[in-house]
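Supplementary notes (optional reading)

For those who missed the lab, this is the record we used. Protein: Mg-protoporphyrin IX chelatase. Length: 683 residues.
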Amino acid sequence: MSTPFPFTAVVGQDDLRLALLLNAVSPAVGGVLVRGEKGTAKSTAVRALAALMPALDVVSGCRFSCDPDSPDPACPDGPHEPGAFETRPARMVELPVGASEDRLVGALDIERALAEGVKAFEPGLLADAHRGILYVDEVNLLHDHLVDLLLDAAAMGASYVEREGVSVRHAARFLLVGTMNPEEGELRPQLLDRFGLTVEVAASREPDQRVEVVRRRLAYDDDPAGFAERWADEESAVRGRIVAARKLLPSVRLGDGALRQIAATCAAFEVDGMRADIVMARTATALAAWAGRTDVLAEDVRQAALLALPHRRRRNPFDAPGIDEDKLDETLEEFGGSDDEDPEPDPDGPGGGDGGGDGGEPPQSDGEGPADDDTAARPEADDSTASPQSGEGGEPQPAGAGAGEQSAVRAAEPFRTKVLSVPGIGEGAAGRRSRARTEHGRTTGARRPRGTLTKLHLAATVMAAAPHQRERGRSGRGLVVRRDDLRQATREGREGNLVLFVVDASGSMAARQRMSAVKGAVLSLLLDAYQRRDKVGLVSFRGTTADVALPPTSSVDAAAVRLESLPTGGRTPLAAGLLKAHDVLRVERLRDPARRALVVVVTDGRATGGPEPVALAGRAARLFAAEGTASVVVDCESGPVRLGLAGQLAGELGGSAVTLDELRADSIAGLVRDVQGTSRRAA
């Protein structure tokens, strides 16, 4: 077994180390979500934590790690005889992003269950992680059905495996730790709220600290065992402090004053539900125990807020996580000082001393925690720097910009959009947009299983086995079932698609009010794509060329940032925009052939510049129709006189057209639009 990098040897990352240690002291805090750019020791710190966790007493021979002092009465390996136990290290179980459902929750032998009535159960990763750590790297890329299973287990502290009336239940209480790079997409809100704490990590910009990071990493790579030995004393000290804090935790007093501060803080920041209050209370208690105190102080409440609230304040995926520290201090001051606890901070506690030295004791707050990322919100155009317009469709007259170019304008408020979907039935990644054959959804038929049976079609299995009962020597009431009789249920659910936006940023779209509405519509569609688990891409065209503003990605907030900064002006090279989008789709099909595409062209339909621009645009559009690519045109034409050019473009694409007003889900202009109908007519 490889030697892990010592936890106390991690340079910097004080908030990350503190959050992990608090969960080691009190697993009831609810886990940690670590957000940050690649190469910032996220995975290294999480894997190093396992070595600091206290050893466990488990029932001998139990595959589900039952506590000998209070074994699970429903344990599949039970009932357990008292007295027989063994001590082993706490486990850290890694959940791969591409894991199957059976690997996560365990597999039940359906054939033996039907033929013999035996619950032959092979435990999964949730059973392995019981009373330990469940680590999910790139948790934001985890499939939705696995997320659902994690949510159920985290909420109930147990895992249930059910197959056609045969069920197995076992305890599954674990410390959930996830790491993610926000550039690759945001996390589903339900799972985000399940993480007790969140921290933002970034590489240091201090040269001396970066030098130390490289020095320690090279030393570890050259001699892992020797490097770990040099840090053994520090590791032992932190391990002992965790044990001491766990013993002290039940004695920590959470006074009424601290509770009022917690409640007032959660109310002031308008977090949803009551989970934030509970997590803050548990975190503040763990902070006091970690500092060796039996009273919770205001500084504990403050640090708990910095760790527990930033990810709970997001109202949509385009909001940057963070918390206003000035507002936090004002709230704590307003509701503080009414309890009988000592208001003076302990110099040896989380806020005192020299913090995170080599002993692995992170400083509690030095003003550089995750809350500072609040200032890193997505860029917005400043109206004061915008270029004046001569009127809708007129040439802009910018100050300090090239001729015919207008600086970016802000997007209008997003709204709920109508559903746009791809025709037919796909087999792409699970999502919520278009029909697809999936492992989850409504049952539509049965087939012979390919590989491991995951979803039994009971009626089809019985029908396959019934004609052979006499020749198999059936004598009792039970059904004699062979493996060849088993049938896999085929199911229909929803998939996520690639939604490629092709946005007209030319001068004909440059009127500020119109472009603001257009950006608001695209932003609304991006929000819809986030909720439906799509990949998104962004192509813009203006002047003489088209540019890929954002290659296909799962990060819709990255697309929103690019959209906000999109300038307008110049001619309308519609053909160039369509051809660029066609190239993007061609490359993406090679990377992800199972994911179907939906092209959303946002334009008024005009084409200018170059010889025969309208005819050239028509030929480019027919490329999409010939390949059967689903498309929809968002018609941005306005004014009393309409040329209907966007509708003509939609016909060339083999798709449909929808106006900005009709795009709203609450519009009375028509029913929910689906590109399937027009695509079939074009075919």
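If you only remember one thing from this example: The radius of gyration is 29 Å.
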